Amino acid sequence: MHELSARVAEAFRSLPSRYLGAEPGFDATYHVRLGDIGRSWEVRCTAIGARVRAGASKREPDVVIGTDAHTWLQLREGEISGVEAFSQRRLYARGDLDLAVGFEGLFRLPSGRPPLLRVHKVPVGHLKISTLTMGEGPHMLLLHGLGATKSSFFDTAAALSRRYTVHALDLPGFGGSSKPSTAPYGAPYAAKAVIGTMDALGIERAHLVGNSMGGRVAIEVGLERPDRVGGIALLSPAVAFVRRDWQWLVRFVRPELGMLPHSLGRQRIEQTFWALFADRDLVDPSVADIVVDEFERIYRSPGARLAFLSSARAIYLEPPFGRKGFYPRLSTLEPPALFVWASHDRLIPVAFRHHVERWLPSADHVVLDGCGHVPQVERPERTNGLLERFFARVDPLGGSRLRAA
């Protein structure tokens, strides 16, 4: 135990010399707690350097990271990434998840090696798109659902980064990305931001994976720029509603009212979260706490509330048919597509599959039994297996074009 503690202490002492720096104005305090040896450290990172102290000061931390000594040493040696450790439930974090996940990206690995991942703000016009990048290989973008962030794809990013360079994005208005108060939130606006992110990262062509609203955005990217897309995997995608009984009310209520200060209440947020799943025993309660905390923190922002309500409104009001309707447009989708539906999805019922099959008969379809609206969280192994097999079939159709220009 003494030898292990000494190795851990040395790993912390070396952090300042490994620090890669940060943008002007950056100032974040991390508390790292290693439960198995009963010790903690405080790491404060600013634009000019990093400082480490054993124990914790009275300064309120921005992030608390908890793990064990062995995992911490593996992280510092680059044997495992923080997202992989989280996926294996060997690490937890509370506070700002962008800061938590981005922590390891602030430090070089031994021998001057770059970190295994980084969280960076990608400039897209007047926007900053918060992006997690990890892995090596053809490029793949992961797009989250309404009210979620890129953290909903951590398990998927960990699995697919073994073969792909994965970029998990916070769409504009969500997570750590910009939240403009005058943006025309909806699939076309978000799709432009996704394409702009690809441009900024020098990505000529990429696979897309989208859940719920992110699935609708992925479809829009495929419709507008099929030349930039390899394959598209859609997990419970928010396709257009055929019946819209509350259309008149949704049109009447303006999302700008969301700019007024209000709270949904933690209990309601928790109830909404758990309602997304068919079998709550398959979801780690600690993950639920992290997600609820993150939503509650972000929703305090007026821009986040506007983005949430405007995006929900755009999804519900999108016309299903007609000259500019969703399904006639869907029939022109060129990239190979996989639709993954869930038998117990209350938001996008599996019956939506029949409309998609009618208008896009070339697409593949899979129904996950005993699953709710977020397959990559509730059934990660099954979902990741489906994604790996689908993209393995698509890669030979243009894999070489998926790498950076």
Protein described:
The chain is α/β, with parallel strands linked by helices and 405 residues long. It folds into two domains: 2-112, SCP2 sterol-binding domain (Nonspecific Lipid-transfer Protein, Chain A, 2-Layer Sandwich), CATH 3.30.1050.10; 117-402, 3-Layer(aba) Sandwich (Rossmann fold), CATH 3.40.50.1820. Helices cover 37% and strands 20% of the residues. It has helices at residues 2-13, 15-18, 69-77, 82-87, 97-102, 154-160, 187-201, 213-224, 247-252, 266-274, 285-298, 302-317, 326-330, 352-359, 375-378, 380-394; strands spanning 27-34, 39-46, 50-54, 63-67, 92-95, 117-124, 127-134, 139-143, 165-169, 206-211, 229-235, 337-342, 364-368. The strands form two sheets. The protein has an eight-stranded mixed β-sheet, sandwiched between helices. The chain has a five-stranded mixed β-sheet with strand order 3-2-1-4-5. Strand 1 (27-34) and strand 2 form a beta hairpin. The chain is globular, with a radius of gyration of 21 Å.
